[in-house]
């Protein structure tokens, strides 16, 4: 029997272990620190997987946008206005004398909208169709033009319903704006800058419950809007009235405004507000009357109240002539603190949110702060007209 030389065996084993450790350690170091001599034997699986995942994510996002655009674009329309020709006289102070230019007489794309019924009901912004002495047309995706037969304007929201004579139109699908989350994907479609029809832009929901002043730069129209959606999807005056969509192609808002002097800040009315107006209109043929107080105000925050030793509430900036507020004796610089016992604070939506719970014709008790004293007034809310 052959004898085993244990000394040589142990030395050989030790050498083998050292070799394997060196190779394994080198491979691990190569994978961790980016050294490349072993790429052929040990492929960089993690980097490959990251690249594949990134590519898949990009492809998925592209597919979502494409699917939404293809699904909804046939239901998005352009709103065009045509006004009567008029001569505008201008004076040149540098010796040119008077000159005249002609305005109007030609169609101009001024906004967007979307179809909500197969028989020709279209939603847009009220400020898009605010000119009552103009002729409006709706242009669909296939460039068909329809004369607007009737415009109904919501007295309390920047919403209008347009009626055109058409059948077999494809309406949009309305989503649920109460389910929105900040950071959620969003797509806007409309006539960008009043020139580029069916422009598609993307972004996210940047904020919820914002308060803004919206208007039409063509007409100088403005309106205070509460509880709107903020998005960084590109919105501009031309695609006002168009839809803001989720990744399923459902309308979650009506594009209404862009922050002037800022980039990537646009706003949309929540679709649930618009849906309520639409249901009321389809049932009765008119919008529901809304309660009206007749004040312009700014909310006094808790911090501002402490600094100025005044209560939280709605600081009255102006009182509308002939309004319920004026008749009841509300004055500028008053601070309305309660309505029917409910405190008016920023964190509960402010004065407008409490008024929205009432009906026109309701008589409410208002507590206000004036010159260091608390005053109680009884006010009957009226119906707000267009």
Automatic annotation (TrEMBL):
Keyword Cytoplasm: no
Domain of life according to the entry: Bacteria
Single GO MF annotation: serine-type endopeptidase activity
GO biological process: proteolysis
Keywords: Hydrolase, Protease
Domain PDZ: residue ranges: 270-372
Signal peptide interval: none
PROSITE patterns, sorted: PDZ
Record's protein name: PDZ domain-containing protein
Species of provenance: Candidatus Woesebacteria bacterium RIFCSPHIGHO2_01_FULL_39_28
Species classification: Bacteria, Candidatus Woeseibacteriota
